[in-house]
């Protein structure tokens, strides 16, 4: 099918522009679909209201998974690792803190990054105050800043309210202290009133937001260990669990006693494994539990946390297949919840949380249940198939729509989703009606490691299973064997699908005429005479050849197949009889193996002859007589420095040869048929007639240094044929043919290709359609589709299936709800997060109702007030995010007002202020201010003199004019104006003198204040030494 379309398209001149060749305006390479878990997955975040899961990566990408098959991938301009991510629940906003300490605001409705806030400091913790526009940021210095997301513009605004380390701890920083804020936890039932701060030193503070002071302190300095994470373990906010760097997990009371309640011994301390993450799930009865992961540990521990925990601890240890980096609980409905675990490699593992709860409750009974099973979240290929080893992507430009968009929308709901949170039961799910390979927009055929074949309808941006071919074990299977598929070929005209595997087994599937009957076709193939795929498959035949099959090609003029193997065998097969007509072995000194085959007819010594052009793995090209298998030429055509060949294609030569001269070896017209050969490091275009004769004649060539090419394919645009090259680093180049000139290129972030080891299967498979679409499958985790032709709609329902955020279900920030779904009080934050989740049955009892307009207005008054004016973190952060320079602003003397001595602004009460005052900073501030005022005084004095001189000149000129015109002089008006200007300037000078005196007084007061602070610090140090002695 592919070759026929190439031949048909090459023979046409659409719009009469084919003589000009493919131009840059004719192509627009772009990624049109990402499906699955992105490579380099690093962190989780979850919105329990909208039921959206976010997965951030190490290279600036964030993948979103919503309901009803919706997925979206957003890419940041900065390829930076995510440190912390959290949803603004039900508002379609996600906050992402990258490694450069930039706070990114992602808008899910607009699918873009709406704002980037540069934070002045190293961010160590992030927490959104849900149902309000505010969020907290903790830094490595122990300070907590309050920021606001503007509802209209999604801009981040720094608030005046701060929580300095000195205020929350009440003691100066020691050199050995870890002041970083590792967790910020709003207190349950009082989220807008109090927050819990956990510091790296182990110190814990419960902070009253309105009073701006700590109401409880505990934890203290922990010797030889640092706090790493924390979570609430009580619905009323009276107990908190804290994980430490030595493997300890301590439960602290947040009541007046503020003491340690108990210690959880889960085995992490014995191995000195730092606690990486803590999450708490609240459940009815005594089923509340804590989920624990350790850094670089495969162990995930779950422990029941109730009144009996101090006496007898019930726990469950889950051995994950690899070290855990993050975990998240996602909710399907009231009865189904899934625990997702993110592995170090980026794989996602899933556990049924109901089975975990059941095991913990019944583990002490006489018949304990079995351990919860681990499942891997992967692409929806059948579990029994294994990974994709080869693929074929078919597109139909003039398809007949057998299914409407409404039918596909319903299929999106019925088909099993990618994430296991909303699994559709096998009884309820139904497969799509498959009318035929040419009756739908896109068809993706996959060959798998167990020899099975899957056929998928990819008309929409998700995989719909329509046909599954796999032989069942019977008496004949032992003679044929099963192995990974390595080659696929589909011919739509003859309705023939051919597969080849590692063992040399070739299977020929003949399909019935289209359209097919309405029947469930996604069931294993059991032979042509048995039920199942009988309404689609007419017959299946087998042929056994030597070596692993590498390429299959059908002749358009006969019923023959050309098949190549990795051992250098070329076989000609009769399709109808399923017999081998001949097999030729082609030896190679470098590396044997056939890369590509193609049938063609050409003139040889004045006679028309059918030839089979063969490209070998060592970049050798030659031609065989397709009827006899004999080599026509005396020699093979090969480059001087050969590389591994990837792709060969015959061009019919109807393209114009006018190139740019850079890649042209000879100025020879290529209106003759030519052969394109692509290897890992070079591309060559030879004359077909010369290749048949065994003569090397290079028409065009292009060499590359690095990186290597991993895939090459041709496509047809409106004005000619083009070449798509995919490099191992994710670069995609579009080049014209036959000139091989570069038209456009893009880079697919996150895509990296590593060649497979010897005798192993590739991790990444790339399939190309005749019109330039590429399908790249990375293992069983992700699928990427790129397109090259502009204005080409590759998929249906792209807009609706890419909309993960449902605005109609959103809850307004004033507390009004547009959806019946209520948000559970859930605490989470990246690697240092926690989950506080209420079961739906108890949601009405524990759901907070503080997100009202009155609450937000009250918070606005609090957060817009500088509660600690001496803390300059807010000003520094604003300066780093502002565009306007303050030094460039002009100061008007009339705008300065001198306050009376008896007028003082009332300052709020502060905690530990004196210990944080710096004498040098205050002195420098006042000195700088005084210097500016002196400059302004001198400037205004010059202005006074200049104005007087100009006025005198102006007055003299006016008098002379009046004398000449009227014969008398009258200068009373001019003299009056001069007196008024002089009086005003004198007043301004008095103001400046008053400012200078006031500045001097303030400087003296600051010196006295600093001296008092220094004496107080000396007294505190003396008291400490006295208490120690």
TrEMBL record:
A GO biological process of this protein is: exocytosis
**SUPFAM superfamilies referenced in this protein's UniProt entry, alphabetically:** NHL repeat (SSF101898), WD40 repeat-like (SSF50978)
Composition bias type Basic and acidic residues, residue spans:
1-11
Per UniProt, which keywords does this protein have? Exocytosis
Q: Which domain of life is it from?
A: Eukaryota
The record, for CDD domains, names:
R-SNARE_STXBP5_6
Residue limits of the Lethal giant larvae (Lgl)-like C-terminal domain?
Answer: 690-808
Q: Which GO terms describe its cellular component?
A: cytoplasm; plasma membrane
Give one Pfam hit by family name. Answer: WD40
**Family membership:** Belongs to the WD repeat L(2)GL family.
Name-wise, this protein is: Lethal giant larvae (Lgl)-like C-terminal domain-containing protein
Q: What is the lineage of its organism?
A: Eukaryota, Viridiplantae, Streptophyta, Embryophyta, Tracheophyta
């Amino acid at each position: 099918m592919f070759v026929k379309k190439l031949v048909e398209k090459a023979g046409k001149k659409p719009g009469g522009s084919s003589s000009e060749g493919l131009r840059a305006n004719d192509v627009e390479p772009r990624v049109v679909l990402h499906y699955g878990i992105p490579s380099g997955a690093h962190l989780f975040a979850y919105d329990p209201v909208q039921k959206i899961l976010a997965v951030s990566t190490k290279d600036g990408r964030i993948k979103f998974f919503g309901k009803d098959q919706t997925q979206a991938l957003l890419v940041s301009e900065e390829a930076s690792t995510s440190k912390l991510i959290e949803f603004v629940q039900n508002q379609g906003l996600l906050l992402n803190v990258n490694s450069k300490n930039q706070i990114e605001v992602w808008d899910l409705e607009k699918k873009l990054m709406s704002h980037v806030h540069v934070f002045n400091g190293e961010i160590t913790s992030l927490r959104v105050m849900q149902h309000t526009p505010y969020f907290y940021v903790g830094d490595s210095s122990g300070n907590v800043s309050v920021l606001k997301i503007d509802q209209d513009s999604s801009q981040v605004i720094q608030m005046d309210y701060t929580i300095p380390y000195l205020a929350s701890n009440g003691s100066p920083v020691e050199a050995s202290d870890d002041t970083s804020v590792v967790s910020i936890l709003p207190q349950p039932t009082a989220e807008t009133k109090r927050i819990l701060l956990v510091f790296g030193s182990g110190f814990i503070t419960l902070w009253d937001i309105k009073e701006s002071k700590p109401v409880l302190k505990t934890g203290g300095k922990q010797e030889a260990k640092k706090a790493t994470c924390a979570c609430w373990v009580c619905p009323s906010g009276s107990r908190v669990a804290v994980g430490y760097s030595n493997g300890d997990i301590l439960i602290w009371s947040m009541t007046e006693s503020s003491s340690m309640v108990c210690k959880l011994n889960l085995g992490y301390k014995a191995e000195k494994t730092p606690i990486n993450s803590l999450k708490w799930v609240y459940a009815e009865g005594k089923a509340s539990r804590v989920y624990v992961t350790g850094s670089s540990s495969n162990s995930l521990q779950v422990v029941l946390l109730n009144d009996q925990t101090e006496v007898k601890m019930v726990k469950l240890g889950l051995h994950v297949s690899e070290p855990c980096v993050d975990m998240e609980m996602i909710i399907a409905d009231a009865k189904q919840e899934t625990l997702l675990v993110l592995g170090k490699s980026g794989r996602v593992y899933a556990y049924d949380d109901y089975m975990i709860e059941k095991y913990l409750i019944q583990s002490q009974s006489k018949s304990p249940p079995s351990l919860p099973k681990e499942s891997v979240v992967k692409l929806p290929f059948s579990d029994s198939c294994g990974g994709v080893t080869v693929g074929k992507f078919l597109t139909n430009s003039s398809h007949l729509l057998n299914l409407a968009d409404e039918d596909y929308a319903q299929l999106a709901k019925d088909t099993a989703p990618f994430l296991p949170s909303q699994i559709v039961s096998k009884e309820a799910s139904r497969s799509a009606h498959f009318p035929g390979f040419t009756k739908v927009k896109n068809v993706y055929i996959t060959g798998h490691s167990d020899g099975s074949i899957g056929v998928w309808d990819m008309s929409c941006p998700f995989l719909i299973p329509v046909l599954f071919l796999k032989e069942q074990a019977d008496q004949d299977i032992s003679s044929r064997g099963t192995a990974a598929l390595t080659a696929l070929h589909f011919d739509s005209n003859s309705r023939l699908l051919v597969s080849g595997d590692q063992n040399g087994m070739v299977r020929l599937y003949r399909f019935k005429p289209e359209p097919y009957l309405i029947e469930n076709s996604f069931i294993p193939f059991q032979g042509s005479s048995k039920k199942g795929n009988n309404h689609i498959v007419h017959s299946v035949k087998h042929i056994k050849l030597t070596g692993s099959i590498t390429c299959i090609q059908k002749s358009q003029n006969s019923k023959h197949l050309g098949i190549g193997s990795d051992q250098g065998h070329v076989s000609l097969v009769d399709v109808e009889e399923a017999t081998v007509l001949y097999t030729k072995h082609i030896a190679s000194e470098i590396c044997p193996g056939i890369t590509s085959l193609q049938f063609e007819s050409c003139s040889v010594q004045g006679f028309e002859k059918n030839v089979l052009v063969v490209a070998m793995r060592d970049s050798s090209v030659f031609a065989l007589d397709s009827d006899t298998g004999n080599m026509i030429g005396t020699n093979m055509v090969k480059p001087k420095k050969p590389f591994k060949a990837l792709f060969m294609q015959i061009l019919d030569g109807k393209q114009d040869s006018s190139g740019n001269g850079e890649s042209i070896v000879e100025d020879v017209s290529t209106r003759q048929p030519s052969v394109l050969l692509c290897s890992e490091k070079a591309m060559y275009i030879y004359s077909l007639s010369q290749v048949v004769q065994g003569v090397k004649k290079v028409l065009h060539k292009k060499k590359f240094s690095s990186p290597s090419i991993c895939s090459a394919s041709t496509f047809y645009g409106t004005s000619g044929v083009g070449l798509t090259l995919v490099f191992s680093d994710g670069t995609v180049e579009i080049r014209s043919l036959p000139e091989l000139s570069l038209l456009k290129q893009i880079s697919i972030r996150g895509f990296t290709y590593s060649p497979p080891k010897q005798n192993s299967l590739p991790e990444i498979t790339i399939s190309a359609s005749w019109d330039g679409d590429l399908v790249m499958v990375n293992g069983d985790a992700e699928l990427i589709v790129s397109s090259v032709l502009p204005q080409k709609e590759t998929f249906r329902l792209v807009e609706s299936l890419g909309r993960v955020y449902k605005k109609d279900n959103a809850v307004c920030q004033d507390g009004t709800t547009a959806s019946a779904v209520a948000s559970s009080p859930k605490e989470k934050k990246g690697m240092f997060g926690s989950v506080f989740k209420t079961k739906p049955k108890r949601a009405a009892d524990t759901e907070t109702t503080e997100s009202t307009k009155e609450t937000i207005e009250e918070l606005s008054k609090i957060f817009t007030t500088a509660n600690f004016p001496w803390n300059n973190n807010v000003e520094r952060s604003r300066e780093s995010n502002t565009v306007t320079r303050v030094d460039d602003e002009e100061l008007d003397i009339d705008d300065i007002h001198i306050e009376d001595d008896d007028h003082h602004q009332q300052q709020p009460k502060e905690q530990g202020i004196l210990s944080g005052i710096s004498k040098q900073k205050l002195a420098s501030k006042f000195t700088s201010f005084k210097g500016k005022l002196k400059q302004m005084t001198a400037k205004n004095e010059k202005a006074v003199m200049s104005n007087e001189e100009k006025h005198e000149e102006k007055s003299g000129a006016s008098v002379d004019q009046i004398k000449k015109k009227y014969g008398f002089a009258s200068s009373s008006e001019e003299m009056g104006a001069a007196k008024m200007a002089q009086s005003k300037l004198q007043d301004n000078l008095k103001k400046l003198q008053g400012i200078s005196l006031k500045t001097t007084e303030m400087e003296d007061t600051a010196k006295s204040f600093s001296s008092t602070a220094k004496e107080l610090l000396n007294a505190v140090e003396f008291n400490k030494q006295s208490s120690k002695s």
